[in-house]
Amino acid sequence: MVAMGGGPELPHPPHAAKEKELVLCVVPFPENAAKKGIEKVEEEFEDVEVRYYYSRVEKGRPVQIDIPEDLIHRATYICTLFWLPPTASSIPSIKFIQFFNAGINNVATHPIYTDSTIPLCSANGVHGPQIAEWVVMMDLLHSHGFVTYWEQQKRREWNSRYQEVVVRDRVGKRVGVLGYGSIGRQVARVAKAMGMDVLAYTASPKPTPESRKDTGFIVPGTGDPDGSFPSAWYSGTSKEALHEFLSQELDLLVIGVPLTKSTTHLLSTPEFELLHKSNPRGTYVANIARGPIIDQAALIAALEGGLIGGAALDVTDPEPLPKEDPLWTAPNCTITPHVSGNTDAYVDRAFELLRENMRRERAGGKLVNEVERGRGY
Fold first, then answer.
1. Residue ranges of the D-isomer specific 2-hydroxyacid dehydrogenase NAD-binding domain (predicted)?
2. Global pTM?
3. Is the dihedral of CA 103, 107, 109, 115 positive or negative?
4. Can you point out the beta strands (E) in the chain?
């Protein structure tokens, strides 16, 4: 470059390095558990850096965490379960927010959800294998009378109890999957392997083979990608449609619908009465979705009155469940503290989903699991 006035050539000014795009992670996993996922993001996208904040959970509640404002302002992508910036205006560079949980009803009243169009993506598909295993495990524990023998072992008592424990193996039994998403599809895969009949229920009709395909995130070798396992499909958002489905003599009912205004207390006394009428042997109910989908008082009454065979609950209303709540002592009810989604592969799968959505966003494609705000999921 020549200086004005014909003087000597001046040195080129140094070019400012382009600032990298920022992936801001605020999730309740120790950073060492996410190390592999972080490295894969930074290896695949050289123009990206990851900043990681461990958001601890204590007694079922996230602990408040402070994130520097300049990082929030820079964020191009956010990964989270509970934490969100206060407003959309505080993240002007954001391209999408990737939740590492399947249901995001916990942020349904947040301004970013209600007052912005920022793409929000759930982690549907990440939980399929482990939660399906939880469902099948609970169903087998119930159908084989395991609790009776477990209590007997603790008493150091040997008693085969042929008269007291009636084992009902799964061959020929019928499982109804209320909400045929990634978890329900993996339940269907395992159930079919055990010789069970599978019925699927979705809010929207699935009349064609194409409409029954799974277009979400699928862990390889799992689920029902083509929607071929159910022997029958049911659909609708009315009580009449739901009741038709519940009248199919179900041995196992798996609840996998998202929590919305319309699914709150979706199952109550009339539904439990209908299950009993259809299957007097007793339907076993497994809820791995959200506690308020079931009217909990009605569930306790149904268990006490023998309207259903039992219940396996990984979610309750409220959470944590108070020590004095009568659900703890309801007959034939097994409760776990919202842990069915836990697995050593969780974080790696979640980061794999993040990378897929980053690829799609950069290519101008459709994001995986983008939430439709009008539907609530």
1. 138-209, 238-340
2. 0.88
3. negative
4. 21-27, 48-54, 57-58, 61-62, 75-80, 96-99, 120-121, 174-178, 197-202, 232-235, 252-255, 284-287, 310-313, 333-335
Strands (E), 203-278: 232-235, 252-255
Hey, which bits of 189-231 come out as E strands?
A: 197-202
Dihedral over Cα of 77, 83, 88, 90: its sign: negative
- Residue 361, judged by CB atoms within 10 A of its CB (0-12, 13-18, 19+), counts as middle
> Does an H or E element contain 209, and which?
none
Spatial separation of the C-alpha atoms in residues 100 and 349, rounded to whole Å: 9
Question: What length does the chain have?
Answer: 377
Domains, the chain, ordered by start: 21-124+344-375 (3.40.50.720), 128-335 (3.40.50.720)
CB-based contact 83:55 (threshold 8 Å): yes
**What are the strands, taking DSSP E only, across 91-215?**
96-99, 120-121, 174-178, 197-202
Report long-range pairs for 303-308 (Cβ below 8 Å, ≥24 apart): 303/330, 303/331, 303/332, 303/333, 304/330, 304/331, 306/276, 306/282, 307/272, 307/273, 307/275, 307/276, 308/272, 308/275, 308/276, 308/282, 308/283, 308/284
DSSP symbols for 28-54: SS-HHHHHHHHHHHHHH-TTEEEEEEE
Closest C-alpha to 182, from 139, 140, 135, 143: 135
Which of 30, 34, 28, 27 is closest to 349 using CA atoms? 34
Q: Rounded to an integer, what is the distance from CA 26 to the centroid of its chain? A: 18
Q: Which residues contact 230 (CB under 8 A, 6 or more apart)?
A: 177, 180, 188, 198, 199, 200, 224
